[in-house]
Amino acid sequence: MKRRGFTTVELLVVLVMAGIVAASIGGVLRRQQRFFANAASLVERRVSLRDATGILPAEMRTLSPPSGDVIAFSDSSLEIRATIGAAVACDTLANGAGLDLVPVRATRSNQLTAFSTTPQAGDIALVLDAGATSAATDDAWVELPIDGVASLTTACAASPFIDPVADASAARLRLRLASGSRLPPTVGPGALVHVLRRVRYRLYRTSTSDWYLGYSEWDGAGYTVVQPVSGPFAPYSRRVGSSGLMLRYLDDVDVPVTLLVDAPRIARIEVVARTEVGRGLSASQAIVDSQTVAVRVRNR
Amino acid sequence: MTQLRAAVHARAGFALPAAIMALVLLSALVAGALFVSTEELRAGRADLADQRALAAAELALERAIVTWDTQRNTQLVVGGVVVLERTTSPGGDRVDVLATRTQRNTLWLTARATSAGDGRRTPARHTVSAALRFAEPTVPVTAALTAGGKVIVDNGTVDASGPGVPGPSSLICPDAAPPVAAGILLPDTTLACGATCTGAAPAGVYGTPPVAAATTLTSDSALSLALAKRATVVLPGGEVVARPSTANGACNVVDPVNWGSPAGGACADHYPIVRVTGDVTLGPGSVGQGVLLVEGSVRFGAGAHFDGVVVATNDIEVVGADARITGVAHARDRDGAGASRVADGGVIRFDACTAQRAVLGGARLERALGRWWAELR
After folding, report:
1. What is the ipTM metric for this complex?
2. Residues of chain A positioned with their CB less than 8 A from the CB of B135
3. What pTM was estimated for this model as a whole?
4. How far is B115 from chain A (nearest CA, A)?
5. What is the pLDDT of residues A124-135, one digit of tens each?
6. What is the largest CA-CA distance in chain B?
7. CA-derived radius of gyration, chain A
8. How many whole angstroms separate alpha carbon B130 and alpha carbon B30?
9. Cα angle vertex B56, ends B52, B58, to 5°?
């Protein structure tokens, strides 16, 4: 019986065609893989962008530039006195040595105390001193350095801001002031308190050569080691439209503020965060994505 | 049969697998694109909800400040909480605004907004707070009657000898002891006269001392200007009979001749700052409280009562049976002619608490100096 077979030419043609098809499929698969990797990376980077444009505005909104909250600034860094909490004092210590604060979870229906992080030595208590008269002219926010913080349950027993039964075990923060700093005699229970901490945000290069938004805070003696809070971003550049983080400071009439001496005039801050994703989805170019947010400072 | 098999064999090839492969690849591409866009949509919705919650909280806070009811100035005790707004939109967004009085002159406002309108499981939430104070005009409380010119007390009473009617709560008058005050304070003690001017303190004037001289009178134009700017009621002058009035069971604060009710009732905490742009006479039975600024002269007729602060750029006359001012009175004597008169049973009775209550009751809310806003996180 004669068996049918393929000629060499047929085999060669088939092999070539199969090779072309396999190469095409391989190419498509590679592109597909890159597409997915880049898409996932893009999503991650956009999360980073959102982080940056979420974290910074939250800090910037509560700034009071005329009160000296902006310590230093540049196009990629910002050193400020950030408000880490606000509270109502339920009592003052003897000789004005400190304050007890209404508990964070007091059961009275209004929230009188809230902290994003627990106060610590080195922070600053700003206390509203309503003055000796009922007029607003003698009001002042008094700046007092905090020397220590304790948590108590025994303070403010008779305070009108605390329910004696329901709040009996609620922790009250006690802010002890640094020696030499005393509350004015006109500050009493019910005084409004803001707690500030010196913090620094900047675009910095990590050991892996990636660029991150870094955060460090003042612990009373110096700034802590920079921690990455968001990134990676595009590298720093002075060129407009290319840096990983670009900060612009504007006054009431949108005139840029560039000198520290003019910092009290800052009314608005623009934040542009920019990121790059390797080779793009089209495999021919890097994808650059950015997010811009403008923040109006509230305490002016 | 053989032909059929041959036909089947003839259909074998890679078109079908290739098509399937292509479909798989295409599906993967679409899935990838969907993944990216879904993530973007989710993140975008989260951003939107976050911004909406923040904007709603800030708007509610501003609205609460602007629409603050000054009757609460004297109603709300230290530590007291009042709900100013509690609304839920059909989309599920919610706003709560609460106020707590923290001291006599300070108020803590919080506005919490949650936004879940897009069906998110965890709604976006923002709580913002405002440190506010009651902005009161500074009214000197040093004498029953402070005058820039001649004062005649003839069968009337100017009494600063005692606390008068004590303030009902320590919120308004935290000092237990009433301040020492003169009966009449004017540039020259000889300007205080009885039926005739003898140079001695007239009968019916009591205080520490009954009559005192002050080279710098505090009933100056700055006080008038400060009060004029804060006026809540402006009237042209003429004869006015003020009386409390209500609408739907509540004090009718938009009634220009409702100047509150010292005797209590629905208008007990209504303390308007009334500016009258000419001479005015308060007719018999006229009753009011608060701050009365008269750009001219004011005459209290028989039976007219006013509790609080009366400031006239010219003269004050309290003449007639039971005509009475309780608090403090300032007559600037702008024209340098005529005289302020307390006569025929009229009384000016010094009461620091009543004056302070009137000033606080008419105070408006202001943001605390420099640093009023905070986000509670």
Report:
1. 0.85
2. 136
3. 0.84
4. 17
5. 999 999 888 777
6. 149
7. 29
8. 49
9. 120
